[in-house]
Amino acid sequence: SVSILIFNTSRQCFVVVKQFRPAVYMCEVERHHPQVFQNQDKESFPSLENPLPAVVGVTYELCAGIVDKPGLSLEEIACEEVLEECGYRVSIADLRRITSYRSGVGVTGSKQTLFYAEVNDQMRTSGGGGQPEEGELIEVVEIPLEESMKFAYDETFPKTMGVIFSFMWFHSNIAPKL
C-alpha cells in the first residue's frame, strides 16, 4: 500500500482522513461487551441490546490506498489516492518518498510506502471523500500545524501509527525550514 502525508501550505495544516474501520469497531464491542465473544460458534452472533455507536469505529488516518493496479507505479497510485480521498490534484513531481515499512504485521505483514506532498488551496479540485461505490466513506479533516503534535499524542483521537510517525517526521525534517 501507499500512504501520503499531505501538508497544505495555504492553510498551514495537515490533511488527513477519518474513516469507519470495522475491525476497530469490533475491538470496541469486545472491550465493552466481552460476553458477546465468549463461547460463540462461528455460525451465530448474538444481537447487542445496546449496540455501540458507529463513531467508536472511526479512526484518523493518512490518505492511503492499496497497490492494486499493475500498470501504475507507487507514485501514480499515491497521486490517484490524494485526488480520490482528499480532492487535491498532485503530480509525481509533487511527491517526496519518505520511507517504506511493514504495516499490519500481526495480520497481513504488508509493505507500505510513505510519501510527503505539499498542496495549496489552488490544487483542490473536489471535496474528496473517496469512492462510495467501493464502500469508502471518507471525511477530509485538517489538523493545524501548531496543534499537530498535541493531536498526535492525544489518545482521545483514535489514529494510526502512520499519523504519529509522519507528524514527527515533518517536525524533524520540514518544520525547521519553514
Compact description:
This protein is α+β, with helices and mostly antiparallel strands and 178 residues long. The protein has helices spanning 22-32, 74-86, 148-153, 161-173, and strands spanning 2-8, 13-20, 58-61, 63-65, 95-103, 110-119, 138-144. Strands 1, 2, 3, 4, 5, 6 and 7 form a 7-stranded mixed sheet that branches.
Number of strands: 7
Helix count, DSSP H or I runs of 4 or more residues: 4
Radius of gyration: 18 Å
State the CATH topology. Nucleoside Triphosphate Pyrophosphohydrolase
Domain module count: 1
Global mean pLDDT: 90
Oligomer: single chain
Q: What best-fitting shape do the alpha-carbon axes yield?
A: globular
Low confidence ranges:
none
Summarize the helix and strand pattern as letters. Answer: EEHEEHEEEHH
End-to-end C-alpha gap: 29 Å
Strand content: 25-35%
Q: Any overview of this molecule?
A:
This protein has 178 residues and is of the alpha+beta class. The chain has one domain: Nucleoside Triphosphate Pyrophosphohydrolase (Alpha-Beta Complex). The protein is 24% helix and 27% strand. The protein has helices at 22-32, 74-86, 148-153, 161-173, and strands at residues 2-8, 13-20, 58-61, 63-65, 95-103, 110-119, 138-144. Strands 1, 2, 3, 4, 5, 6 and 7 form a seven-stranded mixed β-sheet that branches.
Brief descriptors of the model:
178 residues, alpha+beta, Nucleoside Triphosphate Pyrophosphohydrolase, globular, hydrolase, metal ion binding, NUDIX_hydrolase_dom, EC 3.6.1.45
